[in-house]
Amino acid sequence: MAKRAAPEVNAGSMADIAFLLLIFFLVTTTIEVDSGINRKLPPMEESEDNVIIKQKNIFTVLLNGKDQLLVEDELMELKDLRAAAIEFLDNGGDGSCDYCSGKKDPASSDNPDKAIISLKNERETTYKTYIAVQNELVAAYNVLRDQRAKKLYGTSFSEMEANYKDVNWPGNKDKLKEKIDRIKTEYPQKLSEVQ
Amino acid sequence: MSKFKKKKSGALPAISTASLPDIVFMLLFFFMVATVMRQNTLMIENNLPFADQVEKLDKKDLVMYIYAGKPSDNYKQYGTEAKIQLNDKFADVNEIAAFIAAERASKREELIPFLTTALKVDSDANMGLIGDIKQELRKVNALKINYTTKKGSVLGNN
Question: For this UniProt entry, what is the primary localization, expressed as one broad class (chain B) (predicted)?
Fold first, then answer.
C-alpha cells in the first residue's frame, strides 16, 4: 500500500475569517458596569412613636439645587466632608465608647451607635453630586471600620468582607462572620435620607 | 570584480505575515471573553457618575435595571428632560410598580427577597426624578437598591 500524505489545507484565509469575527465582537462589545454603591431604602410603614434624638447626635448634610454643600449649617467643600463625618462619628462624647479615638467633645455625638447622619437633597440637585456625597459618607464609615478591624484583627474590614464572600477562602467562616458583625455593631451605618 | 559589485535590490523584503492570524486570534479571544451582550437598547444618555466606595453586584440574574437620563440624540422628540427607561421603552414613574411586579413574577419565589434594583442614572439627571423612583420602590417594598457607578475618584464627576 502506498502511504499517501494527507493534503495540506490552505490556511491563508484564516486571518480573514478571524478578522471578520474580531470586527464583529469589537463592534458589539459594551463593557458593562456592574459595581456601585449599595443602599437600603427605609420601609414604607413608619413607626409613629417619635424617638427623641438629641440634636448633637445628628450630623446634617444638606445639598441644595446649586450643588452646594451645607454641613452642620456651614458651607463645606466636598473634599472636607469625609474628614468631618469621621470626626463626628468617632467623637464618643459621653465616654461610653471605649474604642473611639475622637476628641470626646461633649457638644458632638455621644457614641457611634447613636450618631446619625442625615442627608437632605433638593429636587434640583444633580445626581453626580448626590453620588459623590453618598460616596464620601460611606467612605467615612469604611475608614472607621477599617481602622477598628486593623486594631482588633490586623486586617482591614474590606479584606474581611472580601474573604467572607470568597468561596475558596480556607479560614473559618463562622468566626469571620462574628468578627464582621462585631465591627458592624461598633460602627453601625446610620445614614438617613430626608424626603 | 563582480564580487564587489553585487547589486542591492532597492525594494525592502516583504514582512512575513505568517503570525498575523495568531495576533488576530488573540485579540478575538479577548473580545469574545470580555463581551456582554446588552439586554436593553438604551434610548437615553447614560453617562454614569464616578465613585470609589463601590461593591460588586454579583448574581446578575437577581438584578433589575432601571435606567434614567435625558433622551439621546435619536429620540429628541421626547424632550430634553430626564426620563425613565424600563426594558426597551420610556416609562412613567407610576409604571415602576408594574415593572417590579413583572420582574418578580419571572423569578423563582424563594429568590424574590434577594432581588436588587440597580439604578443606572445619568450623572446630569436631577434628584427629583431619583426621589420619585425611590418612593415608588418603597411602595412596592423593593428596598435593596444599588446606584451603579463607574470606578474612579468622585472628583472626576465635575
Answer: membrane
The secondary structure of residue B112, as a DSSP letter, is G
Question: Which of these, B43, B36, B44, lies nearest to B60 by C-alpha position?
Answer: B36
Structural domain harbouring A185: 55-194
Q: Is some CB atom of chain B closer than 8 A to the CB atom of A12? A: no
Whole-angstrom Cα distance, residue B125 to residue A8? 61
Number of domains in chain A: 1
Amino acid at A88: F
Closest chain A residue to B27, measured at CA:
A22
Q: Are B96 and B137 in contact (CB under 8 A)?
A: yes
- Architecture label for domain B50-151: 2-Layer Sandwich (3.30)
> How far is the alpha carbon of A14 from chain B, nearest alpha carbon, in Å?
6
Mean pLDDT lowest for which of A24-33, A164-173, B135-144?
Answer: A24-33
pTM, two decimals, is: 0.76
In angstroms, the Cα distances linking A109 to A101, A106, B50 are 13, 7, 30
C-alpha to C-alpha distance for A119 and A69, rounded to whole angstroms? 10
Interface pTM (ipTM) of the complex?
0.73
Residue of B nearest to A67 (CA): B126
Give the number of beta-carbon pairs within 8 Å between A and B.
158
Beta pairing partners, B146: A38, B118
Residue A14 lies in a domain: no
Residue tagged 471578520 (cell numbers):
A20
